[in-house]
C-alpha cells in the first residue's frame, strides 16, 4: 500500500486533475514565470548588445585604441631553423638546401618588379609620415620600396646560395612591426650589431652587414598597420659570416641600437635582440 501511495503522489505531482496543476503550478502560474524569465533574458541580451555597441564606437578599424607592447620591440631571423639553431655541413647539399629555399620564399615579395608595382620611391633618412586631414582618413597609406638588391651579397641574386655553399652563410634580420613607432630621434637611424656570446668571441670571425652598418632606414617608419598600409614592406638587415670557426657551435647575439629605444633586459631575451646558434661543419 505504501508503494502505491508513493506512486500516486508522484502522479499527482506531475498532473493533479482536481486542481489542474502541472508540476505543482497552474497554467497561469507557469505563464507568469515564463513571461518573467523571457523579459529578464531579453533585458540581459539588450544590455549586452548596448554595452558592445558603446565599446565598438571607441574602436578604430585601422589603429588600435590601446597598445600593450614592450618598450623594446623584438627581433627575428630568417632562416630561423629549429629552435633558432642553424647547422649544416658544407659538403652535403641536402643539409643546407632548406635554408636557401626558406630565404628564397622569404625574399620573393622583395623582388624589384613587385616593389615597383606596389610601393613608392621614398626619400631616405627621413620619416615617411602620412597624416590624416581631420576626419578625412588618408587611406590606404603608401609604403616605401625595399628592393632585395639592397642586401647585396645576401640578396640571393649574385649568389643564389646566400653563401651557404661556401660556408659563409647569410642571416636576415627583421625588426618587429609596431604601429606608430618612431624608432630614432634627431635623424639617427637604428642599426643592428651582432657579436658572439660568452666564450665564443674568438670563433665568430669577420662580419659584413647589408645595408652598410646594418641600418634600418627611417623612411620605413612609422608603420600604420596591416589594414591601413596593405603593401608595407618590412625593412631588413643581412649579416654575412665570412670566416666563422668550422665544426664548432657558435652562439651569436644580434641587437638593435637606437637612441630612443631602451636596451632589453635579461628578464626578456627577445626584447630588442635575438640569440641563435650557428654551426658550420666542413671536412676541410
Automatic annotation (TrEMBL):
Q: What is its main location?
A: membrane
Membrane spanning residue stretches: 34-56
Q: Which GO terms describe its biological process?
A: intracellular potassium ion homeostasis; intracellular sodium ion homeostasis; potassium ion import across plasma membrane; sodium ion export across plasma membrane
Q: What single Pfam family name could you report for this chain, choosing any that match?
A: Na_K-ATPase
Q: Which GO terms describe its molecular function?
A: ATPase activator activity
What is the superkingdom listed in this entry's lineage?
Answer: Eukaryota
Record bears the keyword ATP-binding = no
Where in the cell is the protein located? Answer: Cell membrane; Membrane
GO cellular component terms, A-Z: sodium:potassium-exchanging ATPase complex
Q: How does it sit in the membrane?
A: Single-pass type II membrane protein
Alphabetized UniProt keyword annotations: Cell membrane, Disulfide bond, Glycoprotein, Ion transport, Membrane, Potassium, Potassium transport, Signal-anchor, Sodium, Sodium transport, Sodium/potassium transport, Transmembrane, Transmembrane helix, Transport
**Quick check: keyword Kinase in the entry?**
no
Family from the record: Belongs to the X(+)/potassium ATPases subunit beta family.
The function of this protein is: This is the non-catalytic component of the active enzyme, which catalyzes the hydrolysis of ATP coupled with the exchange of Na(+) and K(+) ions across the plasma membrane.
Q: What is the protein's given name? A: Sodium/potassium-transporting ATPase subunit beta
Species for this entry:
Carassius auratus
What taxonomic classification does the UniProt entry list for its organism? Eukaryota, Metazoa, Chordata, Craniata, Vertebrata
Please name the gene that encodes this protein. LOC113049108
